[in-house]
Amino acid sequence: MHRGKVLFCCALVAMGGVVSAGESAASGGSVSASGNTVPKVLTPARLRQPREEVPASVTVIDRDLIRASGAREIWELFRLVPGMSAEKVQGNIPTVAYHATQARSTRRMQVLVDGRTQQRPGLARVMWNDMPLSIEDVERIEITRGPNSALYGANAMTGVINIITRHPRDVTGVEMERRRGNNGVRDARGTVAAQSGPGALRMTVERRGDDGYEGPEDMDYPDAKKVESLNLRYSHDLSPRDELEFFAGVSRTSIEVPPSDSIEAFATQTREQQTLSDEQFAQFKWQRLFSPAHSLSVQLYGQRANAERSMGLCIRDPASGEPGPGGGVFFSGEMRDLYEENDRDLQATMQALQQALQDDDSPLYERHDELTGSGLDPFCGDFLVDVVEERLDLEIQDTVHLSEYARLVTGLNLRHDRAESLAYASGAASNTSRRAFANLELSPGEPLRVNLGGYWEHHDTNDSFFSPRAAVTMIPAPGHGVRMVWSEAVRALDLVETDGDTTIRLQNIPDDFASDPDLLGQPHPDFFITQTISGGLKPERIKSRELGYFGRFGGLELDLRFYHESLRDLVVSRMSLFDLEAHNDSWVHHQGWEGELGWHLSPRHYVRGTLMRNRLENRRNAEGRFAPEESNSLLWRYEVTRSLQLSGTWHRATDYNEFRYERLGAHLSWRYPLGGTELVLRGAIEHDRADEPVVFEENVRGERNRFWLSASLGLW
Q: How many whole angstroms separate alpha carbon 451 and alpha carbon 445?
């Protein structure tokens, strides 16, 4: 039998036993990998609900799964989610997407950490490396698979990842950890937690680093990274009904960047390209419990991210092809005029340049002759791409039980986004948005549940739109639910898509060029290529239909989702400094099914598998590079003793951009108490069964086997 069909057969067997297993499910409850009762999920409707009643497909990754997965970093956990692609696509920068399409520009999924969005406003990116959060501080992750803009607004177009960190009252003492492995893995972490009266604090300092991909044999491919971060969470009980929480974090990331073909055409690289980025945030959350049936929460946060990509360049003289003062002609006013005369067509401009350099009456010939005959130093400097992205967000949410048969959550949100970038916006761009949302859960009678939700928002740069969702859930037996979901969602345009205007300026050029603007015929050393967004773009949209089932019986949980998703008005653009043309002329249709099965064979033995089958239709090939037709995952965990745990993982995708993907992992964890302390030793090894690049040809691993070992010491 085809190995991908094993899970499907298990699903059929499970569904066949739904009714007979109802009493067992009701008494046994939901179980996690450790056999503990699974709490209700909150993310799909902003209401605490059993999984069989939620109006969406949900995957829950708890601490037991996190440990068993052997993951070093948070983004790796999403390989356990059906329909989700998670890999390092652009050098050492991870990409995570549900029902992925484009490999590099994945901007259609909302990612939250303790209610704070991780999608940056300037380029709508989620920078997984820069999150000031350790995987050890994650309590659980709830993933809504499918559109949820009805409750989380634009950019929850394909789904929501909600990362919930550990509460300070659930952590005590001090823990220190060191990790080493091949491929340059070098990590360290320290966590401190303390409680005093009504207050509790948890703080973690972490450093992570590795060497990334090795790249093709004939290419120097530096992409090593180093991440340093601090994260803290403080909770204070103001009264038995009021809790005030404070969250804060900072991070600094350094990543080497491989050479760029577009830059090599004009310049010689004198210093390796590198990206330096830092992120800071502060967040306050107040929760008031008026009664068991009524609560209010107010959240305010601000965040700032600064990224700079730089390298040293010596510009090549267009006549000789070698670095020299004649390279300054690319930064001259005459070259800019030639570019405009050729309708900003790069190929036509370069052909016209060669002709102009042979015509002694041409202004470009005169400029080039002046530069080359002046005895100046070669035109060299620092190439710098900078982006500063800021967000200030205020949200108020009210949750009330109207009656035994109705619950309502409503909320208001005010957000201000700002991006500053000479490279992408020739200055600054901003957007203020106002939002309102609601979700009504009705229980008109067993076995029926109805959820009606919607999100209205108005953007200064995107106008107004409304995202609705309606879901009906039938509960034929305790612990089992069949859901039907209809939803529409949008992705609002980011600030570069609405106000993009690129400028490439060389910094720290020779003094003679810097002190005499007449040498270049313009006041600033700006590259002749400039791009301005055409404007008139529309928000991306999706319509989704879903039929799903969740069942729990004994130690087994099963979730199935059958879906049809139509995405339209997709923005097609490379969003690069050399090509900023964008338009809404692409569409994608997803149709298929996916399943998730967790089986607790005994209190110490757990198996979990996922399977996805997807048929994708799209107008452009770029929209299918990160979208496999079939993907699978399998996790096995066994507690040999209370101190020793073994686990294994398997991930497979039919293809990423026509490259086969398959990976095996084995993990071991051993705990040893030492009086008031505890020593924990962990080890992991990963093996690539498919000896092929990851998504793109340059993403080549140096070794098919990777491993790491770690030791942590806890003082309680």
A: 14
Q: Which residues contact 621 (CB under 8 A, 6 or more apart)?
A: none
Strand positions, DSSP E, 427-555: 427-445, 448-459, 463-477, 480-491, 506-507, 540-553
Confidence band of 669 (pLDDT split at 50, 70, 90): very high
Residue 139 token pair? 């309590």
| Radius of gyration, alpha carbons of the chain | 27
CATH fold of 3-180+198-216+226-259+269-291+298-315+382-493+537-715 reads Maltoporin; Chain A (2.40.170)
Whether the bond into 55 is cis, omega within 30 of 0: no
Q: CB neighbours of 396 closer than 8 A, spacing ≥ 6?
A: 296, 297, 298, 299, 411, 412, 413
Cα–Cα dist 122/120, whole Å = 6
**Geometric angle at alpha carbon 350, from 344 and 356, rounded to 5°:** 110
Region 201-214 average pLDDT: 95
pLDDT-derived band of residue 94, with 50, 70 and 90 as boundaries?
A: very high
Per the CB < 8 A criterion, the answer to whether 449 and 473 are in contact is yes
Average pLDDT, the chain: 88
**Which DSSP helix (H) or strand (E) runs through 340?**
helix 333-341
Q: Which residues contact 645 (CB under 8 A, 6 or more apart)?
A: 67, 68, 637, 638, 639, 668, 669, 670
pLDDT digits (tens, 9 = 90+) for 269-287: 888 888 999 999 999 999 9
What is the domain partition of the chain in residue ranges?
3-180+198-216+226-259+269-291+298-315+382-493+537-715
For residues 704 and 684, give the distance between their C-alpha atoms in angstroms, rounded to a whole number. Answer: 14
* pLDDT tens digits, one per residue of 347-380: 899 999 999 998 888 889 888 888 887 788 899 9
Instruction: Please tell me what DSSP assigns to residue 378.
Output: P
Sheet containing strand 116-117, edge to edge, reads 57-62, 138-145, 159-165, 110-113, 116-117
